[in-house]
Amino acid sequence: MSSFRTIMRMTATLLAGAAVICVFAYAALLVAGFKPVEVYSGSMVPTLRVGSIAFDRPVAGRSVRVGDVITFQDPYTKGRLVTHRVIRIFHTKHGLAYRTKGDANATRDPWTIALPGRVGRVSFSAPYIGFVLWYAHTREVRSALIILVALFLLISTLRRIWRDEPGAVGA
């Protein structure tokens, strides 16, 4: 029975250590200026797969070149971000205009956009982490985490109470 406890303790320690390393790495990326963007659609496959997370680095809109993968506000849906590749840049009387296209899409996007002063350019991506972040925002996962923490606190308190010697309480 003690070998099972030892294995469980080592497993829990390794998982907790891995979680701490992941949190610190994620925090370091945020401090370094990267912005995570979850990939919800397959429009950028194989460059960015569904469920991956793209890390954008803010750059000046004028520094964007053809071939760059950028993240910008969807011109048709307020609050929605789009991450697509720039396929053409041309001059208009209002300034530079950009055409974009998803790598997996047969045709270009139906819009021509003007980029703001700063725009996110994709530096790299990590597969499957977007699923984790998306599910972490759901009510069910947050509730489960609260319940797990409460159970952990309850069990550790009960273990501490049960370990005390009966004669040691009033002494």
Key structural traits:
single chain, 171 residues, alpha+beta, seven-stranded antiparallel beta sheet, 7 strands, elongated
Would you mind describing this structure in some detail?
The protein has 171 residues and is an alpha+beta fold. The protein folds into three domains: 1-32; 34-127, Umud Fragment, subunit A (Ribbon); 129-164. Helices cover 37% and strands 27% of the residues. It contains three helices and seven strands. The protein has helices at 2-31, 129-136, 139-163; strands at 35-38, 53-60, 69-73, 81-92, 95-101, 112-113, 118-126. Strands 1-2-7-3-4-5-6 form a seven-stranded antiparallel beta sheet.
Sheet with the most strands: spatial strand order? 1-2-7-3-4-5-6
Strand element count: 7
User: What number of domains?
Assistant: 3
Helix content: 25-40%
CATH architecture of the largest domain: Ribbon
Here the CATH topology of the largest domain equals Umud Fragment, subunit A
pLDDT under 50 segments (min length 5)?
none
State the gist of this model.
This protein is α+β, with helices and mostly antiparallel strands and 171 residues long. It has helices at residues 2-31, 129-136, 139-163; strands at residues 35-38, 53-60, 69-73, 81-92, 95-101, 112-113, 118-126.
